[in-house]
Amino acid sequence: MTxxxxxxxxxxxxxxxxxxxxxxxxxxxxxxxxxxxDALGGxxxxxxxxxxxxxxxxxxxxxxxxLADAKASGLNAFNMTIGYVFGxxxxxxxxxxxxxxxxxxxxxRSADLLLVRSVADIRRAQKENRIGVILGFQNASMMGKDARxxxxxxxxxxxxxQLTYNGPNQLGDGAMVPANKGLSxxxxxxxAELNRNHMLVDLSHSxxxxxxxxxxxxxxxxxISHTGCRAIADLPRNKTDKELRLVAEKGGFVGIYxxxxxxxxxxxxxxxxxxHIEHAIHICGEDHVxxxxxxxxxxxxxxxxxxxxxxxxxxxxxAAGISAPGERPDIVxxxxxxxxxxxxxxxxxxxxxxxxxxxxxxxxxxxNFLRVADGIWS
Length: 378
Known about the structure:
single chain; 11 strands; disordered N terminus
């Protein structure tokens, strides 16, 4: 079962050529655009039935339309969640099957997609008008009791491993576990293996204590690929200033998501995203903040069908015990005024209007992630 995904809906934003001339681009000159890396996202078509989006034979819902939308958005690379996240499947077998299927898909669609094993691959994808696919996990349950499995996953092309989802596992507690247990002895073994195999340690969805413990245990910088700031919205999926600060002091990266957790009790909008980005910059510094949308690009066509699906999804997640405060059927998990092909360009425009420099905006859109990844994947 895949993790929760952002559903996008809305109209295209105005061109940002006046703010960033390099955004007014054609496919032939993508290598000249500001680099855009989504630290947690996707490029599937959410209008397709969910069964197709889970089916490797249907390219996991990546069709001609969604691929064209992703390229038009300027996206150069994204961290794609694969493998076990939650559910009844065997974590290890499910993950091995996904690694095989995603490698086959990327090879089959090699004219458009490129497996990212290094930063050089992201640069290559940008130059060749392809989209780099970074394979990542959002739960480390598939490690079982053997930390040496990390090497197996690394050889399969996985480059990002999130230690927990919302619940507990053998490494420690996720964000929704009241006990807030820290990094277990086995968790420390896994972190050491991730360091040894040059893989990014991701602390999204983690409880606060395991996050703090993992930052201390890791010999390499860590990332929080998709989160918000708890100082702005006091919800468990967001990170405290202490967590954010320590990530930055370790040389790491924090990606801000386009999710309901950006506001409390109401629908978040683009202004809320900007507020979280600015707070993260205040705490971490401009070299450590970026984006991890937790969503795709292609907008939703039929909102009535979508909203019915959202109601069902929230009910199922609550029944499974994996829902987080802020997930509600009356609050859609996207930013209604920051959607579609122009969402990255519109974000750049909003930041520029707030007085952020072009160099800082480019860091947020992609080069901050690139820098951290380069230091670990090399």
